[in-house]
Specification:
The chain has helices at 14-44, 56-64, 68-81, 85-92, 98-104, 113-122, 125-142, 146-153, 174-191, 209-227, 276-284, 311-321, 359-367, 401-405, 411-418, 439-448, and strands at residues 155-160, 166-171, 242-248, 263-267, 270-273, 287-293, 299-302, 306-307, 335-339, 354-358, 371-375, 379-383. The chain is an alpha+beta fold. The chain has a domain at 14-146 and 421-448.
């Protein structure tokens, strides 16, 4: 990589330095608008699809190096701009920032668009964020269907952070939350009896209140495990699937003599037909119980359960791959272990014959014609259904960076001049002069509908 020239474009005067920063902020705003306009066209034409790409956000992550969460937000904003002409125009001229646009598009409608834009022009991004947050809360409280929306909004997420600690985040309806808190309080009280104040030798507990709550939650989980019915006990992590495959025995006319054998998967009281590709995918990372039957469905033999991947190899695989190995995929939690050469074709259950794949890409490998070729020791290449290698991301993404710094004007400025945008050091500067934002008045105006001439301050 060539070294960039020294930055001779930094003004020596502080006032000129400030003007240069605000001027470039306007150009960045305009460039962000053009970026999102092009992204909207990419989405509308489905040009992002292909080569295993799961979504437009996944495409941005792979080709533009944008974090998946930020990419999803850009996709959402890109889809919204076409229905908000006033916000779209101000954004196109570089007057408002992406941060303000991102916040406004969460609640903007044709009725309140002008009000939100006025607040964005006369206030800061924080003003817009706060206004949108308060409006959404007020809207949810006045919604006749809020009980239903609360039910749909319930969630529980669990993940391990960088320190290995399990982080829980959840939302419950008020009634479910009351049941949960009652159980938590009961377990909390049982584990933490009142300290006898008359006993001078009593020692203050060392645990903090949040730590005691964690202990209470863990005790609830352990009690549930102890009292859970046998049939409802969850499988271990290595037993997340137990695949019971019923194989028709060919007998004298089977196999080489032309009789087609069939296999089905056990699903409750029913046996569902399986395609060979689906059977291979399910058996890649599962406990397998083969059941041999005759043509009439009579059981001839049930073989012992075999586990495809031992826990020790699974742990090593997780440490090596961290997540899905498909190019550009960031999924790390819901992944399967995939045999590059399937074990039913003679492939061994060894680390150099295994890769982690998310459910989407695992299905692509087994059912959509994608392939993995192993080169050397644990080096894998992914091939498209056409047989070609997966295309690399667009690197370098900004090939003219060194040239830009070597000239008096940046490429982004020349491009904006070419499409008629006039951007100076005042274009992107907020018009806020320190007034207090009256959120009650602004939220009330948004709830009533049309813009009532409310500014950011009183």
């Amino acid at each position: 990589m060539s070294q960039l020239p020294s930055l001779t474009l930094i003004p020596a005067d502080n006032a000129a330095l400030s003007s240069e920063i605000t001027r470039l902020a306007g150009h960045i705003n305009a460039a962000q608008h053009r970026f999102l306009t092009l992204l909207a066209a990419l989405i509308e034409r489905d040009s992002w699809a292909g080569n295993g790409i799961k979504s437009p956000a996944h495409w941005l992550n792979y080709h533009c190096g944008i974090d998946l969460g930020a990419a999803r937000e850009k996709v959402r904003v890109a889809k919204s701009l076409s229905t908000l002409p006033a916000i779209d125009e101000a954004f196109r001229f570089g007057t408002i920032s992406y941060s303000k646009v991102r916040a406004m598009t969460r609640s903007a409608t044709q009725e309140n668009e002008q009000l939100l834009l006025r607040v964005a022009l006369h206030g800061t991004a924080q003003h817009v964020e706060q206004l949108v947050r308060k409006f959404r809360r007020a809207e949810s409280l006045t919604d006749d269907r809020r009980d239903q929306s609360r039910h749909h909004a319930r969630e529980l997420t669990c993940f391990f952070d960088d320190d290995g600690m399990l982080v829980l985040r959840g939302r419950m309806t008020p009634e479910d939350g009351a049941v949960f808190m009652k159980a938590m309080d009961a377990m909390f009280t049982a584990q933490n009896p009142p300290v006898n104040q008359d006993n001078d030798t009593a020692i203050l507990p060392e645990k903090t209140f949040p730590q005691k709550r964690v202990d209470a939650l863990l005790a609830l989980a352990e009690q549930a495990m102890c009292t859970m019915e046998e049939g409802l006990q969850p499988l271990s992590s290595a037993d997340k699937y137990q695949v019971v495959i019923h194989i028709e025995h060919g007998g004298e006319h089977g196999g080489k003599h032309g009789h087609e054998q069939h296999c089905t998967i056990e699903s409750g009281a029913h046996h569902l037909p399986l395609s060979p590709a689906t059977a291979r995918r399910l058996c890649c990372d599962a406990s397998l119980v083969p059941v041999l039957e005759d043509a009439s469905g009579n059981v001839l033999n049930i073989r012992r359960k075999t586990r495809a991947i031992p826990p020790s190899i699974r742990r090593a695989l997780q440490i090596r791959d961290h997540g899905c190995r498909f190019p550009g995929c960031c999924e790390s939690r819901y992944v399967d272990a995939h045999h590059v050469q399937h074990w039913c074709d003679g492939g061994e259950t060894r680390l150099d014959n295994l890769v982690l794949l998310c459910r989407h890409h695992h299905r692509l490998l087994h059912q959509d014609g994608y392939e993995i070729v192993k080169h050397g020791n644990q080096q894998f290449e992914f091939l498209t259904p056409a047989g070609g290698a997966m295309p690399a991301a667009l690197v370098p993404q900004f090939a003219t960076a060194a040239e830009d710094f070597a000239t008096e004007t940046l490429a982004i400025e020349r491009e904006h001049e070419g499409i008629g945008l006039v951007i100076d050091s005042r274009t992107a500067v907020t018009r806020w002069q320190g007034e207090r934002m009256d959120y009650d008045l602004a939220v009330g105006a948004m709830m009533r509908g049309p813009m009532l001439g409310v500014s950011a301050g009183r």
